[in-house]
Amino acid sequence: QLQLVESGGGLVQPGGSLRLSCASSEFTLDYYAIGWFRQAPGKEREGVSCIGGHGGRTIYANSVKGRFTISRDNAKNTVYLQMNGLKPEDTAVYYCAAGAREWVGLSENEYHYWGQGTQVTVSS
């Protein structure tokens, strides 16, 4: 099965930046659409961004457009989520997930492989 591991979370002040990473030691992530999702305490998990397999097609939730950027480094078999201009409402556990095909979008039901999550806390 596809194994995903997130890293890069932490504590940051409002307006700060973090870069999250999603990696696999066994599978080539370029084959898959990779999505980032987040879940804040007491709230449903929501889609943040997705990048398609084998290409540069991307999609972002309206709440993060202009602040977050998703990208791939295939040489490192890693997908990144660069988060700038962080706000307290961005505080959540962030998960990466792999879709079953090259393009999936932001629907949680389209993803079959999930990492364990990394905590992002934005607080002054």
Task: Write up what this structure looks like.
With 124 residues, this protein is mainly β. It contains no helices and 11 strands. The strands form 2 sheets. Strands 2, 4, 5, 6, 9, 10 and 11 form a 7-stranded mixed beta sheet that branches. A 4-stranded antiparallel beta sheet has the order 1-3-8-7, with no helix packed on it. Strand 4 (34-39) and strand 5 form a beta hairpin. The radius of gyration is 13 Å and the shape is globular. The termini are far apart.
How do the helices and strands line up, and which of them pair or pack?
Elements: E1 5-7, E2 10-12, E3 18-23, E4 34-39, E5 46-51, E6 58-60, E7 68-73, E8 78-83, E9 92-99, E10 111-114, E11 118-122
Q: What attributes does this structure have?
A:
7-stranded mixed β-sheet; 4-stranded antiparallel β-sheet; mainly beta; 11 strands; 124 residues; 45% strand
Number of helices: 0
Low-confidence runs of at least 5 consecutive residues: none
* Rg, nearest Å: 13 Å
Largest sheet: 7 strands, mixed
Mean pLDDT, to the nearest integer, reads: 94
Determine the strand fraction and express it as a percent band: over 45%
Number of strands: 11
Binned, the helix content reads under 10%
Structural class: mainly beta
Shape: globular
Outline of the structure:
By secondary structure, this protein is mainly β.
